[in-house]
Amino acid sequence: MYYHDKRLQYPVQVSEPDPAFARMLQQAIGGVEGEIRVCMQYFFQAWGNRAPTPKYRDMLLHTATEEIGHIEMLATAVALNLDKAPASLQAEGAADSIVGAVMGGERPRHIIEGLIHKNLLSTGLAAMPVDSDGVPFNMSHIYASGNIAADMYCNVAAESTGRVLATRLYNAARDEGMKKMLHFMIARDTMHQEQWLAVIEELGGAATQLPIPNSFPQEKEDQEHNYDFFVTSLDGSYPEGRWTSGPSIDGRGEFTVFRNEPLGGEPELGAARPDGMAQVEQTDATSV
Amino acid sequence: MYYHDKRLQYPVQVSEPDPAFARMLQQAIGGVEGEIRVCMQYFFQAWGNRAPTPKYRDMLLHTATEEIGHIEMLATAVALNLDKAPASLQAEGAADSIVGAVMGGERPRHIIEGLIHKNLLSTGLAAMPVDSDGVPFNMSHIYASGNIAADMYCNVAAESTGRVLATRLYNAARDEGMKKMLHFMIARDTMHQEQWLAVIEELGGAATQLPIPNSFPQEKEDQEHNYDFFVTSLDGSYPEGRWTSGPSIDGRGEFTVFRNEPLGGEPELGAARPDGMAQVEQTDATSV
Amino acid sequence: MYYHDKRLQYPVQVSEPDPAFARMLQQAIGGVEGEIRVCMQYFFQAWGNRAPTPKYRDMLLHTATEEIGHIEMLATAVALNLDKAPASLQAEGAADSIVGAVMGGERPRHIIEGLIHKNLLSTGLAAMPVDSDGVPFNMSHIYASGNIAADMYCNVAAESTGRVLATRLYNAARDEGMKKMLHFMIARDTMHQEQWLAVIEELGGAATQLPIPNSFPQEKEDQEHNYDFFVTSLDGSYPEGRWTSGPSIDGRGEFTVFRNEPLGGEPELGAARPDGMAQVEQTDATSV
Amino acid sequence: MYYHDKRLQYPVQVSEPDPAFARMLQQAIGGVEGEIRVCMQYFFQAWGNRAPTPKYRDMLLHTATEEIGHIEMLATAVALNLDKAPASLQAEGAADSIVGAVMGGERPRHIIEGLIHKNLLSTGLAAMPVDSDGVPFNMSHIYASGNIAADMYCNVAAESTGRVLATRLYNAARDEGMKKMLHFMIARDTMHQEQWLAVIEELGGAATQLPIPNSFPQEKEDQEHNYDFFVTSLDGSYPEGRWTSGPSIDGRGEFTVFRNEPLGGEPELGAARPDGMAQVEQTDATSV
Amino acid sequence: MYYHDKRLQYPVQVSEPDPAFARMLQQAIGGVEGEIRVCMQYFFQAWGNRAPTPKYRDMLLHTATEEIGHIEMLATAVALNLDKAPASLQAEGAADSIVGAVMGGERPRHIIEGLIHKNLLSTGLAAMPVDSDGVPFNMSHIYASGNIAADMYCNVAAESTGRVLATRLYNAARDEGMKKMLHFMIARDTMHQEQWLAVIEELGGAATQLPIPNSFPQEKEDQEHNYDFFVTSLDGSYPEGRWTSGPSIDGRGEFTVFRNEPLGGEPELGAARPDGMAQVEQTDATSV
Amino acid sequence: MYYHDKRLQYPVQVSEPDPAFARMLQQAIGGVEGEIRVCMQYFFQAWGNRAPTPKYRDMLLHTATEEIGHIEMLATAVALNLDKAPASLQAEGAADSIVGAVMGGERPRHIIEGLIHKNLLSTGLAAMPVDSDGVPFNMSHIYASGNIAADMYCNVAAESTGRVLATRLYNAARDEGMKKMLHFMIARDTMHQEQWLAVIEELGGAATQLPIPNSFPQEKEDQEHNYDFFVTSLDGSYPEGRWTSGPSIDGRGEFTVFRNEPLGGEPELGAARPDGMAQVEQTDATSV
């Protein structure tokens, strides 16, 4: 179970509110590379973890719990950027409506409105669990396969796309407070990339963990084609690289090249059943 | 651009159609671990690839094109499993409706109907781009970040969850034809896991590729916390592992442990603006 | 604006409630071929119709309004099928829970539960705007292009898939009351297919309406390839048909066959910008 | 920021694992009436709360944090119900595959498979953030309007539908451990219904809080129709009730009845623009 | 069943078309606080209503039918705002494309395009069932629980967020015609808030209706914790209010405060099954 | 199975990159009228095709394969439009971040950012499988009914809305390269509209193909109402047209007009079951 402290994990300060940047930050909340995703992914991996020891369940809970605090920081940052001014100065905003209030002097009203549509209309200028285009986060992005190695790579993928996003936001930020918040979150993403790869390494690295799942006997897979790079170009050309020759990454095979060709025949589903509500012409071989 | 051959990449044969297994196969078509996902992910990564040489664009096109053939094989397998019998024998199915026709003798009609609802009603017993619960595939699962290392880990993640799924389907399969098709697809997943990790290795491995993106100067991130395992347990306990001490995976830091605590203060958004359509009580400091 | 009458457009009677059939009927409510779709599609086409006369707006309103009554009939049918018995007999259902109550004597409890999960848990045994797999209807399926001919074909498509679905449900139905309700709805689908094609005919048929939109001057399109069947097979083979030779349907061209080949070159996006948070290796032509 | 304790808020024990019940429990995790919803709704309401005092922000954080623990309990319950047996006995399950393993002796394999499709194939038998039909939770269900009274009613709605669901699950449960867990969660839903209504009462109840938002001057709304029950029946009949006469709930008006009729004219959008890619016939008044 | 009148429920006039405002109005059509939602919610509640008398079914039908007319008014308003000018003046729009046509003189073309993307490209400048960010309405937002009290609170929540939205739109509107239309719709939202609360009152108010469902015997819920405010702050602090002491809203209990602590133990799912396609290391207690 | 050629089907050139136009092109990739849709629709129709001969399966494969190349062209066009300049000139862009780089001199930074949010943050300036509002393509739009005539009309609908979209994009394009690419794609849409209608004609046209499915015996449908135009206006007025009198399109009936009226009674679902967790008042006929 869980506890909270009212204070934030790290300071979130905004000197000059910027509604357009608020919308960009939404990608880090409700985007597929965002913090709701990693938070929920680590929780569901932890809660469903089956293993001889609770070690990985425990580790996942630490990081999942940390991530709630990251969503909180970003949500605070969005609200502050949608605000005209720091709290104590709000009263002096002379605008006659919330719509007018979010514009700086030089920006045309209808433009800013357009950039923050849903945050403006649905929340009274606060964060939402949506991405920078206003698309709600969909929980199908929570990958938790029950296989610890597959999950660790899913987590590396999440933290890699997450850190790429965070650095793009850092580059786009103008406000020092925002840069500072992001420089902390980028550091945490660095650690989390490391952390999930450390699990793979602790378990033995590629040599023992690949192919994932390592519990499926490799004799049962097609041993003729399991280390082949398949070429589908019309003229048979292909780019040479680490994946076309030499030992495989897991050390169990040798990379080779195979020019793809049909090993199967043309599929035949045959005529439609008379009772299947196809057209009559689909059911009778003589009529077409 | 693209070409096709009417024949399948690998034989797809079904001796005893099994509608329940057809529905399970749907997960490998339209599930988030499925083949539409990897096919489209590799295509969008290829089409958006920016690099000094077209090498990775090319490689991605080979594998993306291969994957169309995998969707095709699975779609064929679903249709055959939804079929009562091979085409030439269909006429003797005595059922008076398509609904009756998909049941084996020993299976109650309404059960099978329930298991394959949408395939039964919407397609005339063919495959759909949905998962095993009938949920349509959503293209937000196509990860293509523009960062080659992030994308490669996304692909490893995709092929790892994909091979876990394929082996579970293999275990669930009874039909020899289905086992054979899957033993081929499992082998291809093995290669694809290897292939994406080979790119990381070719580029220099963790030492040069981490943290992702490696184009963001690490001086700009919070160097105090970028190799810290953050502990959020109430009592400060944590699981020791490769991630709590020793050199980091990228060789640039040392793992340490940090007991999480609020470094920021309590956020203050202040009273709501009078024009924001909050309740009056939210806008006036004296009234609450 | 709109009015209602408490009575149904057509009688809906269920002698033997069948929860499994209730779930199948959900496809006709919230499936992509269902009645919510056509109802909302015709409304949005009407409300957005721009034309010299209000004629088509008016016609669309008649049919859209009719369709509300179809959703109502189906929703009533679902509720009745989820019911153990007619209202007056309910009290004697001896089951100790709603879950027990929906099972007939011969059917295992957990099976029926599984078939109607969400209707059981979320509605107290009533209809929902979801399909037969429990997937909620998504309003992106409302096609209203602002082009009357495009919209009419969208409507023919909707009524064609709708009638295919309705006839499959008819075949699956056992209850006479359900067959009767469906025999009425199937007839309405017949008329609606005719009705939308009648508009095309009234406007002049293929000769004047194709290609859609007919307001785009055909000189501006690539006149070399606008009546070509493109062949993409590796060996150049293709199926001959009405579409490979002879006059085109709109009478403005002659069908011909073109063997597809790359008319464009290889796309070059070049190296990634240094500031785009790609990997360093993507930005420097000398390093890869 | 947040902390965790590895232990659960309340005991979760399962004597006889029941995969079908596991799927029903999914509705309480990822259904629109489920715990992810309330958890995230209270968090986003707290994080975006604007008010003279932090009181309601604080209160919301307590309950949001409590709700994470509820998701955790339910996720644990799903995993245990998908399990054949307590951990120590697992080895003796003689099944040759995970698919076989989840069946009790008397249940046909393909039925159980069908009921738990995605949990079986995607997670290795654990909980997912999906509902009982396998539909992923969509974050658009997080209602946080920035208006405290509107939000409190959203929360009452959430806890009302939530408790209805929990009691249906209680009725469907056979296992004593599951009944016990649910009897705790039902009690918490009771409190939460009370808690949100207590806020309305503390703020002054209907007399000061309605209509919501109370910051919009009622003079600006149409005072002729703001307490009218509109009748749309063809014959003008309507059901009498508390809403057709007597003082309004907020004490500011008197309920009356108004027979609905068109107060506006027929809308005229006119002909389509020549450049809008409608059909030619839509643009020229003389041609239709 | 249903009837229509071509005229609108209330006048919809636009003097100066404003494409940016058109997009904001979309939130009131296809947003989660919008009119499609309430219309369909009341219909599904009506069609599934089970009660000794048809009274509430009837009442719901009146208001659901009214709401179709509201969607119609808003759709008309969107189309008029996307139009350059009143119908009779359209011909003189000198723009060479629909894209140019929607811009006023002072507005840069690409900005307006960006604000109304999908309405511009998909509809020929008409309304769509999407929100102000272009996200299609998802029918999972139709709450109809089968419990009249839960449904009434869902309706109050819908009309509260709906009226908050409508007043924000009113504040953002510049055109007098739009203000007039909204002042009518705001008034109707006032009535609808009242109407649903009137049902709760007619049924006996909180004293008899809470906790919802009131048909679940409260003896079966955990009576130790059903009126406790749970405190999750690390230091045990909490905000005092109406919910921490005094009689509960339903008059059946006394509010108290409970400091949350784990009443359950650490969950143990144990090692993964050998056949579950976890990694080998997850299945063998001796290897990790 | 499938092959590729690195070159494009048709040249894609951009002289002056325009980020706003890039976003509009997204509608043609991931919009419901876009190329992913037709590509996948034709594939699933082909893969599930049941007929006496493989003719239509074959034809569909040719066109589906062609469409992959169309997505590729559009994805290339999006990437080029998001680019500041041709590859060789990129280095001289003086902007200090990718965000700055996509602005032309005269355009305010935050505006352009707002128009291309997700492409900017998630992809490093490449195409995504989303529409022009950033909404991901949802695979429920793949219509493949198993009925060849229904499918052909679905395809005509797809190509009609697709060509309407393409011509709107053509009108909005300023760059000659973009106009050229689109003039090719518009031509292909012309052919594809023809092609699917040619199938209907080859099968016999309306006379044999309607009503769809033509395998359902028309005697089983309600012959009283299958060619009636139903009038729902309050005053009985209706627009006369090809659909109100004269022979039906299929030649099997005569169009007539029927004034809609309730043929069914008022539905009675009766009181709620005591065990259904409705309110007590819903279960007892004497209490309300």
TrEMBL record, chains A, B, C, D, E, F:
Coiled-coil blocks: none
Designated name of the protein: Manganese catalase family protein
One Pfam match: Mn_catalase
Superkingdom field: Bacteria
Organism of derivation: Sphingomonas citri
Family, as annotated: Belongs to the manganese catalase family.
Location of the region described as Disordered in the Swiss-Prot/TrEMBL record: 260-288
InterPro entries: Ferritin-like (IPR012347), Ferritin-like_SF (IPR009078), Mn_catalase (IPR007760), Mn_catalase_dom (IPR039377)
